[in-house]
Design brief:
By secondary structure, the chain is mainly α. The chain is 62% helix and 0% strand. The chain is globular.
Length: 73
Amino acid sequence: MFDPKIFGERLFLLRKRQPGVTQADIAKLLGITPTQISDMENGKTATTMARLYLLCDYFNVSADYLLGRTDKP
């Protein structure tokens, strides 16, 4: 079952591991606002399949990792 908190925690950790990458940077990549990224990182909301794909590509991780189905990036 999808847990938005796991998704948010992993998104936050991946972003923090990239020096200098801000919520605004990720928002620009996805075509949304920094507030929406904050909501994702805080487990308040998820994202679309297209945006999930962009996040996986950007951070070089699997969708299963971001969605909490595996602990292997």
